[in-house]
Structure formats: C-alpha cells, structure tokens
Amino acid sequence: MDAQADSRITTAIAAHERGAARPVDREDRSTAEDVVNRLLPHPETRLAVLRVLAELIDHAHSRGDRKWAITLFDRLARLNVGAIHVGVLLADVLFLIVDPAKIDDPTRAALGPRFHRTTEFPLTGSAMELYLPADDVAEWWPKLREASLAFVDAAAARDTSYRNSHSPGLMAYLDHALGRELPRPADRRADDQPVD
After folding, report:
1. Which residues, other chains included, contact 38 with Cβ-Cβ below 8 Å and sequence gap of 6+?
2. Which segments in the chain show pLDDT lower than 50?
C-alpha cells in the first residue's frame, strides 16, 4: 500500500470518528448524486463501491424490509443494518464492519492499515472495522464478501432504528447509477403505523 492510500485512510478515520457531517435534502436525487460524486470522484472506483453498497442492501433486505435504511449527509452516506452502520461512504474510502471469524490469518495480515480495530457490539459480538480506499474495493471485496455479509446477517437480528433518517433520493441515485432498481426499506413501523 502506498503512502497516499495510507494517508487517505488516516484522514477518513479522523473524519469518521469526528462525526461532524450535516444533514442534506434526503429526498432529492441530484443532491445525492452531488454528494456521492464528491466523495467518489473517479467513475470506475465509484461504480465498484456502489456495487458493493448495492450488494449489502440486497442482502440486508433479504433479511427483512425493516432491517435496514440508508442515510445521506453532506460528507458521508451510511448503510444502517439493525443498530449498526455496516457500511459508510467516506471521501474516497469505504468503511465496512465485518465478522472477524470469517477472515483468515493471511487476509488479516494483508489488510495492513486497512484494518482499523476490533470492536464489540452487544448483539453481534466481535467485529472488525475496515477502511478500504476506493481504488482497493474491486480487489478486496471478493476476499471480504463472506465476512461482510455474515456481519449484516448478525446485525439484522433486530429491526433498524434509523428508518426516520432513510434517504429516498440516495436510493433513486443508486438505481440510476447501477441501472437497476434496488429494494426499499419499509415505510411503516412494525405496528403498521407510518414512519414519521
């Protein structure tokens, strides 16, 4: 990994942990397109990252339409499954949380600075936090897919608490960018009342 990629990871970690992103118009597709194009300026790597995001959405949705939501901010977009941000688009970086039991030792060693830390969640147990530079995503996703989807399964053990912050405009942009319609989360609560 070169120094530039290492610097991008360090910057992404600091920005992500600072958490100072501001809300934007979550209904507007063009707002979502502007934010995503700013975060991921290179078309080839943008498409690779969006394909991973779509696969995570498809998998979360297969566990139930109340299990996930996606939220757009001015400097990031978060895929929320259950109570956890399992994937986050940052500036030229994709943050993922994966199941460490599904990562073998050679892969763990090869991750290098992409591996940030191991953390514990009450419902899912141990998890690995990864920061993948956007231009690494196409290479690394096949090696991380099983671990990422396994963590999505664990996080989907409960409904998401982020339904009210779901961003339909980002979903419309993803449909357009990927050339297919992605599933949508429920717009009603479990008690069949509309989401506020």
Report:
1. 91
2. 194-196
